[in-house]
Prior knowledge:
C: Peroxisomal Thiolase, Chain A, domain 1; globular
Amino acid sequence: xxxxxxxxxxxxxxxxxxxxxxxxxxxxxxxxxxxxxxxxxxxxxxxxxxxxxxxxxxxxxxxxxxxxxxxxxxxxxxxxxxxxxxxxxxxxxxxxxxxxxxxxxxxxxxxxxxxxxxxxxxxxxxxxxxxxxxxxxxxxxxxxxxxxxxxxxxxxxxxxxxxxxxxxxxx
Amino acid sequence: xxxxxxxxxxxxxxxxxxxxxxxxxxxxxxxxxxxxxxxxxxxxxxxxxxxxxxxxxxxxxxxxxxxxxxxxxxxxxxxxxxxxxxxxxxxxxxxxxxxxxxxxxxxxxxxxxxxxxxxxxxxxxxxxxxxxxxxxxxxxxxxxxxxxxxxxxxxxx
Amino acid sequence: xxxxxxxxxxxxxxxxxxxxxxxxxxxxxxxxxxxxxxxxxxxxxxxxxxxxxxxxxxxxxxxxxxxxxxxxxxxxxxxxxxxxxxxxxxxxxxxxxxxxxxxxxxxxxxxxxxxxxxxxxxxxxxxxxxxxxxxxxxxxxxxxxxxxxxxxxxxxxxxxxxxxxxxxxxxxxxxxxxxxxxxxxxxxxxxxxxxxxxxxxxxxxxxxxxxxxxxxxxxxxxxxxxxxxxxxxxxxxxxxxxxxxxxxxxxxxxxxxxxxxxxxxxxxxxxxxxxxxxxxxxxxxxxxxxxxxxxxxxxxxxxxxxxxxxxxxxxxxxxxxxxxxxxxxxxxxxxxxxxxxxxxxxxxxxxxxxxxxxxxxxxxxxxxxxxxxxxxxxxxxxxxxxxxxxxx
Lengths: 171, 157, 392
């Protein structure tokens, strides 16, 4: 087999003008409509409530809510107010930002199963009040650790997932 | 099905963008083409050993015969000609331009392909298919299409 | 089932995998496609149709990049189709090529995968972030690694898997990659378990040495009908089974511990191939390994290990390249050891199975006898499984 082709460039070649480069930034901004189910969910957050939706066919209570059950492929309309508490399905400890730069203090994203939704139904959010070292965080949090939503005050809520500041461990 | 949303303020939107930009290399063939443009004010074409076409801009391979192009890459000589053109009256943002601008597809005898570029020093209504044109070079060149400022009608000298 | 044609693989080719390539996406596609045609002993004139795959356009920064690099894939004046299932696209490329020929409509198909991720600044993660839900997830300041770290932690905690086991998978693949001619500089190597454990924590439990890199590269394969393949000098390798399956896009509602969608894709492929006992009938595997835990996760989804048992088997050397009684996994070096130009890395895995079955894998040739192997991809919104079984 003959050697494969490809010309690998060094950082040096890219920064010294050794290799020609062009640049481009796409001019595109978006406005995303939340639609029926998600608008209702976001309006619920503004009121300090976590809303789920129930499928009478598979009997699952789903969160985040949606206008159809993707398992039964039927429309849904039975809203259910869920609890402010849940338990950790899984979590991680993030030392990098989206642009690959390092963070000094880590963030702790978690999938949280919300009480009142069917087992395994969770949402993504951040954990707080868990310490700021890997050792402290991994000691404090386990799969199954009970947690509670910490809401922004009424006046600051705007109908966004960030109306919940974070979840904190309880018990 | 869910009730319709009756009050428009109940319908939510989120705005945002995808926060990236791009840096492109010009490639094996592009490096050679744009460096010749920058350093020698030459427009190189690459020949296909199979169909014998000379490709402009030059390519690493002939996309029709799917074989690598071969040496020598030679510069096109003499004036190019207008294969087609269009007259712009509005900018990308759809604002009226102070005066109409001509964008032309320019080729050379004996090559396959050509360049898209601006055509100036000519009234739009005087542009014709086949019109002979030549490049006006930028005094400071960086190895980009903008090293040619624009094309203009070829001088009859 | 009533397929018109049995489909053969008769050639494969790759470019080198690189952190930053000089070549344009078109040029990368051309280099890989030419190498595959040469390996098959064919020219573009023998090709009836072309299939391409590539991950999101936003990486290369070219809108409709499948159309843009089509001429580098040899598609001038031919029926051409780009198919796309995110990270699963590389393995799906052969499925797409397969149904072009199995339909009876074509005798030959050139399959080309291309990716140039280095164009996206400040980091390709900027593209990946847009796969998260714009209402419930993106406002939290997400990055792509979260989803993998969350899956890995769920898997670790459910089965009590030690971090050393994941380091061992990375060590194996990075060692295997040392023998691969496409391996990206700096990726493959003989690393100690300790040095992998000591590498930077990115998003715990994911360490830097347990993640595949960002890469540029391309890969290609040539498929033909049985009658066409019989006229060639090399013995063909057959596509014995294909399978693909998609889970819900509500990923926080999924079982993060087990890739059900991979199992469904594998069962579809096994049924078509007549494989009733995968652990007996599959002799070499290329599971998708963008992360060390993912190789183990996927080996379980492929039913090559019981749930939660792939890590123990890794400790026993069951997946090692020189195993005599186990099933070698990622003998190529995988994404961890060769590199991860997303769509192209799936074709690299398929090409490895092809070369292993042909006995052409050189220093990477597995010790045990192989008559049948599989490659598996994973992607879309972390929800698709794609499986191809090759046999001789």
